[in-house]
Design brief:
Elements: H1 5-19, E1 24-29, H2 33-47, E2 51-56, H3 62-69, E3 74-76, H4 80-90, H5 130-142
Parallel strand pairs: 1-2, 1-3
Helix pairs in contact: 1-2
Length: 168
Amino acid sequence: MSFRPALIIATVLAAWSAAATAETIKIGVTPGPHAQIFEAVKPIAAKQGLDIQLIEFSDYVVPNAALDAGDIQANSFQNQPYLDNQKVDRGYKIEAVGLTVNFPIGVYSKKHKAFADIPDGGKVSIPNDPTNGGRVLLLLLRDKGAIKLKDGVGFKPTVLDSPKIPRS
């Protein structure tokens, strides 16, 4: 796994300076890669005088609620479109202060060995959250030529933005 500790440390320092007198910085992460990355960052931050306490969340809504409520000083688990949607939908007053990793999204099948093996009219499922569903529509299905999307849909397309996707 490749990541940039300096960028993550800068994000931690920004959160720490916002917390000013905090001896411990509480950072919300999701289990797996985000937690693993911050476990690697902890000793580097400790050399800078920062004590990072990781709080693991298994529900993607809770870390932003905890950050907005002041229970944690930072979190690492989401992409910018997801944060933007959460701010609009829930009224959070939180901002991105740095970037970390963005994981690729894939297509998985028990029946087909390659994307090209999926027949015209074949069924695929997409994530039901707007940002990851949009990523699949844009970065997989549109870019592979499986669907066309209306002009100007930006980063938040839905199945309604493609005439080729049957409505059910």
